[in-house]
Each structure stands twice: as structure tokens, then as C-alpha cells.
Amino acid sequence: MNIPVFDAHCDTILEAKAHGCGLRRNSLHVDLERGGLFAPYAQIFAIFTRPWPENVDWKNIDYSKDWPAEVLVPRCDELLKYMLSEFDKNADILTHCKSSDDAETAAKDGKVAAFIAIEGAELVGCDLKRLEAACGRGVRFINLCWNFDNALCGAANGPTKSGLTRQGADYVKRMQELGVAVDLSHASERTFWDVAEITKRPIIAGHSNSKAVCDNARNLTDEQFKALVSLHGVAGINLCPDFLNESSDAGINDIMRHIEHFLALGGEKAVCLGGDLDGIDCPPKGVAGIEDYGKIYNAMLGRNYSEDLVRDIFYNNLFDVLERVL
Ligand SMILES: [Zn+2]
Predict the structure, then answer these.
(1) Which of 72, 116, 172, 299 counts the most CB atoms within 10 A of its CB?
(2) C-alpha 158 to ligand 1 mean position (Å)
(3) Backbone angles phi, psi at 307, to 5 degrees
(4) What is the DSSP letter of 220?
């Protein structure tokens, strides 16, 4: 397919490990063979973990207290080892990338460009030593928090909606010195503004939609999105039905509404893909997995967007940010 895809967020590694099915070919939302149909295909694979039982009811989770670091850190470490072993196993079709140059080389070689993210700095203990160690092992993106407040900041779904702590400000500074991208999806609005004030580099919200289109705590206000535009960052369009449409019958038209709203705010260079695939129970109608990004691409062309603009959203915008961040 002559369609480029660079997706800023999937949770496939947790699912692949849980099901023992690996990354190459599976029945999850994302695998390397289906993603590899796009040319080029780059993917940020997130590490996410919480020790909940299977079939947890997400709506009833109490976000007021998180699991302790002694539980989360070893689990994250296990997942990182699994991720790296999957990357090794599939080295004939995948390159573990740490920079935009690496992604360019992978594209030339016809390979999947794979980056590693950690979804929630608490998974690496919120401390600088572990941050440096994670960076040394090839992690290039960290969400400051997930749905729980942590030592660095308040979360969008946390109880306090507080901002960046002093420890959080030091952490952001060190991330940017190391060339690790700061991802503010899941952060509270106050955290977002606190980071926007001190950041030395573009910031990203790798899987967050528009709050004006769908009023959900995880989505970005127009002011936040405009700040991303002026900081030369990006927001990744999340395919979670609850973040697309308040009545939960989301389809490709709703994806278009978020993209169109962001474009109306001057986001031609600030919108990218951030599907949250394998992190959501069920994608919107018409989308079964990564293979259906082609449908969204064609839906945009069908609305008379120029192919250049669609290719920017599908690939170039995120790539350009990485060039300035990593
Ligand atoms: Zn997430």
C-alpha cells in the first residue's frame, strides 16, 4: 500500500505477552505483518502495566491510589525485556529506532521502524537513575503519568488535578537533556500548562483527541491544542470510542470530526495518528485494527484533503517532531 503510517501509541506488547502470541503475526489490533503493509510504517510501542485481574471493569477503577513502585517497576522491566526480545526475533523485518535517522534508515530498508515508550513514569519509579537506565535501553518516550497522580504530576483522571511537582520539573529537564520525548497524554491540564511553561523542546500528546468535539477528561482543550501548535508539538488521534464520541457509537466520521477540528485550529503540522490500539477494548466501527488505517486515509482523500496534508498527518508531522526532540 502506498500509504505511510507513523502511529504514536499502541499497547500491543502487554497483550502480546499476556497471550503469548508475539508481535509478528497475531489476532490483536496490531502486528508487524499487517502494519508492514504500509510503506513506510513506524510505530511507537508503549509499555503499560497494572496488576489487575483480567476483565477488569475500567469504569469502576479507583484512581485515588496506585500500586506501589515495588510492584510496578519489576513488571515494567519484564515487559521491556519481552519487547526487546520480540524486536530481536523480528530483526529481519523490524528495526529498533532511537532517532528519526534510524526511522529513515528502516524505511529505506523496507522495515518497520519501532520505538519504545513507557506509559507512566511511575513504571520506572519516577526517579532520574531509572530514567537514565531506561534511555540507555532504548526508551525514547515517556508519559509523565497514566491515570493516577504520581510523584511527578497530577493526572487527567486523578483525584487532585494538580500540576507538575518540583521533582516533575527536574524529571522533564533531564528527559529533554537525554533526548527522551515528554508525552502529556493522561496528564492533568495543570500539568500540561506547567510543562508548556518550562519545556525547551516540542511536547507531544501521543494519544489525545479534542475536548470540544468529545467532552472527556483525556481530551485536549482548544487552548491546549493551540499551545501544542505553537510549541511545534503533535497530538495523536486516539481511536478509543469513548474519546471520539460521547454516545459511544463512534465510527470513522467521528475520527474525521476530531481531525477537522484540530485542522481548523491551525493544526496542519500538529495532528498525527495515536490509535491506542490494543489499549482499547474495541476500535470504532469500520476499524478492526492497524490494517484499517487505509480506510481513514481514503476517507480524508474523499473529503478533498490534499494528499500532501493527509501524508503529513499520517507520517510526516510526527517524524518532524522526533527530528527536533530525540
Ligand atoms: Zn493511554
Answers:
(1) 172
(2) 14
(3) -60, -35
(4) B
Find residue 288's DSSP bridge partners. none
**pLDDT of 136 higher than 90:** yes
Q: How far apart (Å, rounded) are the C-alpha atoms in residues 242 and 156?
A: 15
CA of 240 relative to ligand 1 center, distance in Å: 10
Centre of ligand 1 from the C-alpha of residue 147, in Å: 8
For the chain, the straight-line distance linking the first and the last C-alpha, in angstroms and rounded, comes to: 28
CB 131 within 8 Å of CB 59:
no
Q: How far apart are CA 221 and CA 275, in angstroms?
A: 19
Q: Give the distance (Å) from ligand 1 centre to CA of residue 104.
A: 26
- The enclosing H or E element of 142 equals strand 139-143
Read off the C-alpha cell for 15: 497483550
Rounded to the nearest angstrom, the distance between the alpha carbon of 109 and the centre of ligand 1 is 30
Residue 10 Cα, ligand 1 centroid: separation in angstroms?
8
pTM over 0.85: yes
Q: Which of 202, 195, 152 is nearest to 181 (CA)?
A: 202
Q: Give the tens place of pLDDT for each residue, 244-265.
A: 999 879 999 999 999 999 999 9
**Distances, alpha carbon 311 to alpha carbons 5, 212, 291, in Å:** 8, 25, 16
Model confidence pLDDT, tens digit, residues 268-283: 999 999 999 999 999 9
Distance of CA 123 from the midpoint of ligand 1 (Å): 13
Question: Degrees (nearest 5) of the Cα angle 16, 17, 23?
Answer: 40
CA 185–ligand 1 middle distance (angstroms): 7
Report which DSSP code applies to 148: S
Give the fold, CATH level 3, of 5-55+65-325: TIM Barrel (3.20.20)
Which amino acid, one-letter code, is at 322? L
